[in-house]
Amino acid sequence: MLDGLMLPFGWEVDPPALGIALLLGFSVGAVVSVTATTWRVSRAERKRRALERLDTLTGLPNRSAVEEQLATPPAVASVFLVELDRFAAINEAFGREVGDRLVRSVAEHLQALTKGDELLGRWTGSQFLLLSPSCTTHDDAARRATEITEALSAVARIGVDHIRVSVTVGGAVIGHGDVDLPAALEGADMALAIARNAGFGSTEIFDRTKARPLSTHEADERLRRALADDHFSIMYTPIVSLEELGVAGVSTTLHLADAAQGIVTPAIVRALVEQSNLQREVAIHLLDRVVPQAAHWARRHESSDPVTLIELTPTQMIDPEVAAHLTRLLDEHDLDPGNICLVLSSDEPFELTTAWGPLRELKAAGVLVGIDNFGEGWASLAFLRRMAVDVVRFGPGVTESMSDGRSELAIASQFISLIARLELIGIASGVTDEVQRTALHGVGCNLAQGPWFGRATTAAGIDELLDRGKVKPGKQRRGIDWKAPTTA
Prior knowledge:
CATH topology of the largest domain: TIM Barrel
Number of helices: 18
Helix content: 40-55%
Structural class: alpha/beta
Strand content: 15-25%
Shape: globular
Radius of gyration: 28 Å
CATH architecture of the largest domain: Alpha-Beta Barrel
CATH class of the largest domain: Alpha Beta
Distance between the termini: 88 Å
Largest sheet: 8 strands, mixed, barrel
Number of domains: 3
CATH superfamily of the largest domain: EAL domain
């Protein structure tokens, strides 16, 4: 009886299998050959499968591999989405090769930060996912998110230029209340959107007690109550001419007064609206409030002729009922369509091929169309190439970079020059100091908004700004043509 047969080259054949093969007439050599071939195929298959689980650029587990490992998550842990800031801007300004180098560098630094029990993988093009079982509370997660942002804040050299590299982090804790992994991932994504709006290098940890992912039904019910009880409030932010410092336009934001949460920020309101089936109703409510106010400003401050920006979601922008309602309001209030700019605002990309059609009639009538947060996320150069717009508002990160040195100015000036060459109206957002204002004006940006000029206020507050001596009637729009180009 064979206890085991050791063959050349280290192969070992199972005795029963060898015995059966010999009885069937196979030689020992043939059995060894088949076994060796099978082993080699198995090894190659294992290697292929292992490579399929890795991101080719960073060597980290790819999304599929991460999702497999998340199939059985810890009962309590924190999940973080770590996003490389300025990724779209860097790719477009310096090329994909530089963008890839930065992604690899961030991946390497994140790997160095990763603790033994943590899982790290590449989630999307500019995002990484980190699962940390040792972070079991909201405070733990907040500290870990801050550690990540501080450790990855650096200056990278690209040729003669230096680029400030930073990451923005959104996180959530699994196991608190009824927050399972899917809810935590959704919460981390919501937190990332809030952190992104706060500026590059920011962190936000999802708090179930303040905001939680809602079902579509829950979102609908919440919005119905808000509409019925008039819990929405409209706030207005002045858009200022950087040359004369007069008010050239007004940007609107939608807030929600919630009994449990107080005033809900525009980013959360937008996410709530986008999740609901009441986008049309909310848009009509917004237009009913804003268009009469815009008509009032146009009549009362005829010399300054401010343009009012109204933020809408992609679904609202393509809704023919919303477009028809706006047309009726413009006629009813005898408002020049050029005094209204519909700004596409969304945290997620959408299908461009269906978005532009319903806007053509409004645009042909003179209504301006704009996009928000240009240079960040989906609102990038690729988007601009495919959608004819009149107004481009830069994300706060572009403005923030104006304080970061010569190379950051170079990136911003390339964006602003691009907008000028395309004969579009560019607006910088998030201006916080005179250094940024001067730098923006120096590279050719004519319009801006932000705390340096005035935070969001009521309609009466805008009236006060226009009435006070801070505005120079007839000068604030000099050199700025708000009207839509004739070659739409």
